[in-house]
């Protein structure tokens, strides 16, 4: 098995079960046009998020890390018409591109894009007494993943599903002597998850069009 096979199989699954329409294709194109990194979830991962949203009948979704709103659009399409996605992005350029993509997708009423640091917005949502979310997708900067998760718990209810992307980092999490702050951040996060009695959690390794990685999946007890 090699990366080429993983990519071909990802394409096969995508064509079968996660075909992109022009809105999603243009969202990916908009990243190149705006000189932004191609670090969105893949189409098959977008569909995976939709399946998870359906499984917990999610209406209220929180996302940390919007980029161009590719994952946001997948998720907003999987919740009922009266549902809401709050998505948080701290880079104003990314937020501007995301906002255009959300409008083109006809989802401006369902998606509330908050521009600011994830930590600040999480604390704001908590202090404003925001209703708990049914589903939380953490996909922003990696060093504070543990703190994001702890704050996300305060915005959850029993049954809330919390998915955190990029927690395996091509296996670099096995390196105890790493100096990479992103790897150290997810190592600390994975350790916290293992000992957290508030959730039932595991980590799924992910292969496909993007590099080898993994997603932590937790359900609040
Ligand atoms: C991996 S990308 C998100 C990809 C997106 N979820 C998708 O799949 O389409 C991470 C994003 O998080 C943003 N980000 C990084 N640090 C952040 C922070 N402290 N607060 C909010 N957003 C942050 C980055 O600017 C970037 O746009």
Automatic annotation (TrEMBL):
Gene3D superfamilies found in the cross-reference section: Vaccinia Virus protein VP39
Keywords for this protein: Methyltransferase, S-adenosyl-L-methionine, Transferase
CDD domains tied to this protein: AdoMet_MTases
Pfam annotation, one family: Methyltransf_3
Domain of life: Bacteria
Name of the featured protein: O-methyltransferase
